[in-house]
Amino acid sequence: MRYLVISDIHANHVALEAVLEDAESLYDEVWCLGDLIGYGPQPNECVETIRDLGGLAIAGNHDWAVLGKLDIDHFNRDARHALLWTRSVLTADNQDYLDRLEVSLVEEEVFTLVHGSPRYPVWEYILYPEVAQVNFAHFATPYCLVGHTHSPMVFLETRGDPKRYYVEVPMFNNGPQSLPSVRMILNPGSVGQPRDGDARSAYGILDTETATFDFRRVPYDVEKTQQQMIHLEFAPRLVGRLGLGH
Asked: Where are the domains of the chain?
């Protein structure tokens, strides 16, 4: 089975469309790692596209916040403004869809899927090997797929005693890479809000038959999304950061 692995769409439908076009014919099913909404100007369109694609999705912190499951005071001012606006426009059907999302799933008995981390699925950033090390004890499968940081990266746990933990930054558009035979935490990056200095949308193709993962980047019309945000009077910082990828 080939899975389109996406995360952190953040209501950026222009970016989501670019990813789906780039990935056409490369996947059989979709795995979405959360944060369908927040920050961006087209929350309903993004939720409805994911709903129509089928597959599965899990909940992220912005998905919970727009439903009132997280206190929006935990978010910065610009994010709060976007969340409040999203609450005002999100349809009842889309709210219900987000409300039914699980926070953690195990698929094919091999892959744990969460948004933030296996320890705190909705809201913990795995950015450093020290944080990854603690989290390896919180999932039992060989591989864990996460989002939330908006930065593609892989954390690996070596065999032996003592175990060692290290991080790798993946190569993009370099073809499928074999999954290592050691345990790993894998982040495909963000579709709609990249924050690794590369404004292109990031996603991955997981092939469970060949045991490979293909890290991919695709450009999208950033200015189109930015113009939508400007029209809605979103914070200038949210508009500007899309073009910079941070």
From this structure: 2-244
Find out whether 7 and 34 touch, Cβ atoms under 8 Å: yes
| Tens digits of residue pLDDT in 107-163 | 999 999 999 999 999 999 999 999 999 999 999 999 999 999 999 999 999 887 788
Q: Cite the beta strand spans of 127-168 per DSSP E.
A: 143-145, 153-157, 165-168
With tokens 């099913």, the residue in question is: 29
**Paired sense of beta strands 104-107 and 111-114, if any:** antiparallel
Cα distances from 165 to residues 132, 155, 172, 173, in angstroms, run: 8, 7, 22, 25
- Answering whether pTM is above 0.85, one says yes
Three-state DSSP state, 20:
helix
124 φ, ψ to 5°? -145, 130
Q: Assign a CATH topology to domain 2-244.
A: Purple Acid Phosphatase; chain A, domain 2 (3.60.21)
Instruction: Report the 10 Å Cβ neighbour count for 150.
Output: 22
Run of H or E including 184:
strand 183-187
Can you list the alpha helix ranges (DSSP code H) found in the chain?
Answer: 13-23, 43-53, 61-67, 77-89, 92-99, 129-135, 222-231, 236-244
Q: Omega before 176 cis (within 30°)?
A: no
Rounded to an integer, what is the distance from CA 74 to the centroid of its chain? 20
Closest CA to 12 of 50, 31, 48, 38: 38
Of the candidates 84, 57, 56, which has an alpha carbon nearest to the alpha carbon of residue 68?
Answer: 84
- 34 and 11 Cβ atoms separated by less than 8 Å: no
| Structure tokens, 80 | 């709060």
Task: Give residue for tokens 């727009």.
Answer: 66
